[in-house]
Amino acid sequence: MFEQPPAWIAWGRAHSYQILAPLVALLIVAIFAQTPLYDLVENSTVNLRIRARAPYDPPADPRLVFVGIDRQSLDYLGAWPWPRTLIADFLKTIVLAGAKPHVIAFDVLFSDDYDKFHDLQSRSGANYDDILADAVGLMPNSIVITGAMSLKLQNKGADAADAAKTKLELAQESMTFPFTNIQGDYRKIEGSDMASFPVPALRKVSIFGFANDATTSADGIRRTVPFLVRVQDKIYPSLSLQVLCQMLSVDPDKVQIRVGRDVTLTDISGKKWTIPIDEKGQYTVNYRRKEAFQENNLSFFWLFKNLQNSESGTPLPKACDIDKKVIFIGEDNDGLTDMGPSPYEGRSALPYVHLDAINNVLRHDYLTIVPQFWVILGWCLVTWGTLFRLQQSILVEAVILPLAVTILYVAIAFAIFGSWSIQIALAWPVISYMTVCFGAIVLRWRDESRGRRELRGIFSRMISPDLMNHLLENPSSLKLGGSKRAVTILFSDIRDYTSISEGLDEEELVRQLNEYFERMVNCVLECGGRIDKFIGDAVMAMWGDLAALSRGNEQDARNAVRAALRMRRELLVLNTERMAANLKPLRIGIGLNHGQVVAGQIGSSSKSEFTVMGDAVNVASRLESLTKEFRTDLAIGESVLPLLGNGFLTRRLGVIQLMGKTTPTLVYEVLAERTDLSLSTMKEETVARYEHALDLFFARRFTEAEAEFAACEVLHPGDYCVERYWQACRTFIHTPPRADWNGRIVMESK
Questions:
Q1: Residue 267 maps to a domain
Q2: Are residues 514 and 388 in the same domain?
């Protein structure tokens, strides 16, 4: 036997889409997040936000000067790379011009032995690298930073040799020192056992920083730059971080590293700069428009030329004022290699990535990325709230609400990014939210369409397709009023349904009633009847109320009785299913009557229905009620019996004065159709003996009737009518009724 599921389970089933769809969407997003396409889509929204706020970007720190190896420089100074003597001349010119930049940083590698590599020698016979180193040594007021590179693994044999070479170079004299104040697992920081350093001569007079490429996203844009680089078991600064340390006068031992959290720089006055990094030692760049550096963006050749002119007394242009500033030298021409996409354009000078990172730190302009946990939590709450709201909202709101929430979220994402550099995931929350809401709208549309179809089907069964067709073909029938018709009326009701329905919630009660009505209504319709109305758990049906559909009084009455017998059989099937589901079986009572009624559109101008009214309707209802008293399930009035002919096995229940009536009526019970007497609970011979006994009873021959009813009790034990009349006979034998007694039974209730 099965028990009813708990209310919370029923609730969960009813709202399964609202509960599960967001969880399924999150699972799909988690899988999609592992693909390059996910980053491509999300980063495109970041680019849009970066470009949207670009007009409001503040200017870069005025101490930063980018000196670009641009097209003009290449045209006048020749193809890149230039001889190191040219770089040396540039540095000497700075000294001779009396300029005193704080830091000169080269986003350039000087790792190869220039003379050996190019098979060149200066006119004086000196080594080109030594000449460059000497020029660096002439700059006591400036710190020169050159680039180094952590090398990637290539092949086992070569890597082992390079690792050994790197170890030797780390042991050589150098002005660059690794960081030592490290908390956390330094092995998580990206790097390798191999590195390419500036030539030895430069390492003695300059410091280096690693110019490794930033991490490239799916769209090719460097979203992060390494601030820390691991070389074997030592941690060194990147070019960007080295510039910051020298610019802010921070010694290596004053740099505190917490792997996966931040790098803290502390100058001699105790001022701190805390830079967020990830576990790999990378910093997320908060891009600002390139025009922010425009005032301090110089051509290498133009600066070189003006510095040379100043040696002969020509005033140095204000734009070439590089005193106490950071000169960052790098490639700035589309034909060179150090170019790549940015959030603003397809090809941009990559040194700007370093400049952006340095400028972010100087201005404390960090990008804060909202953790996915909080995004997921907020998304779930908003999505669940929306889905449950969509269940109750009208169609217009169901469309507008998701759009409004999406627009609001996008506006917030752009606003907090533009105002506070807070980056919140945008692509997946919007796409998944709209997809889930669209699914809810589609399901609701489908359910409503199905509901309308079901309602139309139920409505058509309630008034019958024939009535619908009749009303469509005869619009005048919709007018208030009616005409007299001879009809057969059927009333059926469920016995003790109040006690059966106790403990059931509204949805389960409706479900069970609908299941019952579905079976009973089909019985009526299959026999040519029309459902007039439902009254609680009662059914009222008609035969003959529509002239065009009537098959004559006799046939209508016979079809009505056949419908009642089918309802009896169908109830047996339904009860078998209900008991298998641990539900109480149902018992019904059916009353049938035939008579004159007024059939038509009855009600008011604002609300009306096609129905019938008259005394015959009330009698049918009373007949259904008396089935309780006589413990049967089908009773018909005396006006019905003559219309049935000899096609049904019936017996008299008695002469009964119905509630509200002054004259009695003869009431019958229909046992079965004669074409299938096996369905009768009483054999035909027993029915004949019962009828004979009843004749004796009405003839006041109580002793003979008592004997006949006793014989019926033996043939059909437990029959209520037999026992009732048998007991009445015994009573009347000892106490005869009055002389005016006619055997009527007076019903005192409906």
A1: no
A2: no
Domain end position, chosen among 622, 644, 666 = 644
DSSP code, position 286: -
Residues 329 and 441 reside in one and the same domain: no
Q: How confident is the model at residue 492 (pLDDT cuts 50, 70, 90)?
A: very high
Q: Are residues 536 and 578 in the same domain?
A: yes
**What tokens appear for 743 in the block?**
């055997």
Structure tokens at 510: 């409706």
- Give exposure, 688-713, as e/b (b: 16+ Cβ within 10 Å): ebbeebbebbbeeebeebbebbebbe
Query: 311-325, 344-358, 581-595, 634-648: which has the minimum mean pLDDT?
Result: 311-325
d(Cα 529, Cα 520) in Å, to the nearest integer? 11
For helices 372-392 and 427-463, angle between their N-to-C axes, nearest 10 degrees? 20
The domain tally of the chain equals 4
Q: Does residue 516 lie in a domain region?
A: yes
Q: Which phi and psi angles does 596 have, rounded to 5°?
A: -80, 135
Helix axis angle for 465-473 and 427-463, nearest 10°, is 80
Beta-bridge partners for 368: 422
- 538 within some domain: yes
Q: Residue 393: which domain range?
A: 7-52+368-454
For the chain, the first-to-last Cα distance in angstroms comes to 36
The reply to whether omega before 81 is within 30° of 0 (cis) is: yes
> Per residue in 316-356, pLDDT tens?
888 888 899 999 999 988 888 888 888 888 888 888 899 99
By the 8 A CB rule, do 112 and 72 touch?
no
Residue 274 inside a domain? The answer is: no
Tokens matching residue 243:
């510039």
Q: Are 693 and 712 in contact (CB under 8 A)?
A: yes
Domain harbouring 569, CATH code:
3.30.70.1230
Confidence check: pLDDT of 556 > 90:
yes
Question: Max CA-CA distance within the chain?
Answer: 159
Judge if pTM exceeds 0.70: no
Q: Do residues 228 and 153 both lie within one domain?
A: yes
Side-chain half-sphere CA neighbours of 137 within 13 A: 11
Pair 524, 437 in one domain: no
- 622 and 659 fall within a common domain: no
Question: What b-and-e string marks burial along 522-549, b requiring 16 or more CB atoms within 10 Å of the CB?
Answer: ebbbebbbbbbeeeebbbbbbbbbbeeb
Residue pLDDT, tens place only, 218-233:
788 888 999 999 998 9
Pick from 192-196, 398-402, 623-627 the range whose average pLDDT is largest: 623-627
